[in-house]
TrEMBL record:
Any one GO BP annotation for this protein: cell division
Family per record: Belongs to the MurCDEF family.
Matching PROSITE patterns: FOLYLPOLYGLU_SYNT_1 (PS01011)
Keywords, in A-Z order: ATP-binding, Cell cycle, Cell division, Cell shape, Cell wall biogenesis/degradation, Cytoplasm, Ligase, Nucleotide-binding, Peptidoglycan synthesis
Intracellular or extracellular location(s): Cytoplasm
UniProt name for this protein: UDP-N-acetylmuramoylalanine--D-glutamate ligase
A GO MF term: UDP-N-acetylmuramoylalanine-D-glutamate ligase activity
Root EC class: ligase
Length: 447
């Protein structure tokens, strides 16, 4: 019997796949189960419970598959480990059930964009490819369909933690900056080690693409052996770069690949997206897609919402929704990528931010700041001296009006909050949608 803890997307996908492979399955969710997932379990005849963990039944399992949101220190997990019951992730289980190729992407920032772009490049070239993982779709559910030659999988560190035998055929590590450190003993080295699990079990025939410019990646690699064929990419000229960007094209020279891919058609903005694009293009070249096909597909890519997403223009002022930028590094990349003067909308629930890295960019590029949050004191203390045009509000419609008043034709109003959204919004998506709706409303009132 397999016990599955958590009945969300990954848990229900794992349950359905396990049942299809002939296992007895029991699903336990300590919280509530969404109606959609309850219906799927009921239709499949899979026993489940919610609001509790029946430990006696759970510990009868030969193996436990757990949701990535459940920490290893949770009592139910500790009890399983004390009984020597293996605890794995849905990704680990799904990987056993297919012979398809895995392209796996992780990093603190940029995972979703790179995953979506890689998927788009392969899909546009006509390959049988599925999208799965942290991007919101269950890998187990996709494997159950058994209709794909490639899986492009976004992996969080939480998913990587419970992967042991799983192997990526192509692994991409974008960057490592402080995040979720409470799950890793507040130690960066533990968090970095979790990210590098992406390369575990790789053979020489597998490829590990990594950001050569990232300090934490470099630090880890100088003191740890990393398996697989290493493919460094970067913007800073250095010896041994396999993939680089020359300002207008991506140049690749590694393994049997010698290629130049023009990026003029790409809609992606900013330096961080140059890294994301290098990584995705490297993966596409490795699976045999021709440069001309990649160039065409770059032009038809549309990123996920809330990631440097243009949401409107009013009187020559462009409004950009980057609500997903909930940490300082993501905002640094957004500010750095803008070529026009910026009116910056920032704020929300502070995550212990140190704004020092942003000061030079704010001084150089930001003409005004609108602080959108319940408590803006830290933002005011950090930026009011270098950007005197600073106002605050707790209303997104007012924030958009204030920003528009500061802006002139040719400027950009950039929502890039550096903070969580929970003071005024349900989540970053709600914040981003509200911003886009406020822009649309203001444009309508000016019409």
């Amino acid at each position: 019997m397999i016990a599955i803890l958590g009945a969300g997307e990954s848990g229900v996908g794992a349950a359905l796949l396990a049942q299809a492979k002939g296992y007895d399955v029991f699903v336990s969710d300590f919280g509530g189960i969404a109606e959609k997932y309850r219906a799927q379990l009921t239709q499949a005849g899979i026993p489940f419970e919610e609001g509790t963990h029946s430990l006696e039944q759970i510990y009868e399992a030969e193996e436990i598959i757990k949701s990535p949101g459940i920490p290893d220190k949770a009592p139910v997990i500790q009890g399983a480990l004390e009984r020597n019951i293996p605890v794995i992730s849905e990704i680990e289980f799904a990987g056993r059930c297919t012979k398809a190729k895995f392209i796996c992407i992780t990093g603190t920032n940029g995972k979703t964009t790179t995953t979506l772009l890689t998927y788009h490049l392969l899909k546009s070239a006509g390959l049988k490819v599925a999208l799965a993982g942290n991007v919101g779709e269950s890998l187990a559910g996709k494997v159950l369909e058994d209709a794909h030659d490639y899986y492009v999988v976004e992996l969080s560190s939480f998913q990587l933690d419970n992967m042991y035998q799983f192997k990526a055929d192509i692994g991409i590590l974008l960057n490592i900056t402080p995040d979720h450190l409470d799950r890793y003993g507040n130690k960066m080295e533990n968090y970095a080690a979790a990210k590098f699990r992406l390369a575990q079990n790789m053979a020489a025939s597998d490829y590990f693409l990594f950001n050569q410019d990232d300090a934490e990646i470099q630090k880890y690699m100088t003191s740890n052996e990393v398996p697989g064929t290493q493919v460094p990419f970067g913007l800073k000229a250095s010896e041994g770069l396999a993939i680089q960007y020359d300002g207008s094209a991506i140049l690749a020279s590694f393994s049997q690949i010698r290629a130049k891919v023009d990026t003029a058609n790409s809609p992606l903005i900013g330096q961080h997206n140059q890294y994301n694009t290098m990584a995705a293009v490297g993966a596409a070249l490795l699976v045999g897609i021709e440069p001309a096909q990649i160039e065409e597909a770059l032009g038809t890519f549309r990123n996920a919402e809330h990631r440097l997403q243009p949401v409107g223009e009013i009187e020559g002022v462009q409004f950009i929704n980057d609500s997903k930028a909930t940490n300082v590094e993501a905002v640094w990349y957004a500010l750095d990528g803008m070529r026009q003067p910026i009116v910056w909308v920032v704020g929300g629930t502070d995550k212990g931010n140190d704004y020092t890295p942003l000061l030079p960019l704010v001084r150089e590029k930001v003409k005004a700041i609108v602080a959108l949050g319940v408590d803006n004191s830290k933002i005011i203390a950090s930026f009011s001296q270098i950007c005197p045009k600073l106002v605050e509000t707790q209303d997104v419609n007012e924030a958009v009006k204030l920003a528009k008043d500061f802006a002139e034709a040719g400027d950009v109003v950039l929502l890039s909050p550096a903070c969580a959204s929970f003071d005024l919004f349900k989540n970053y998506e709600h914040r981003g949608r509200s911003f886009a709706e406020a822009v649309a409303a203001l444009k309508g009132s000016d019409a």
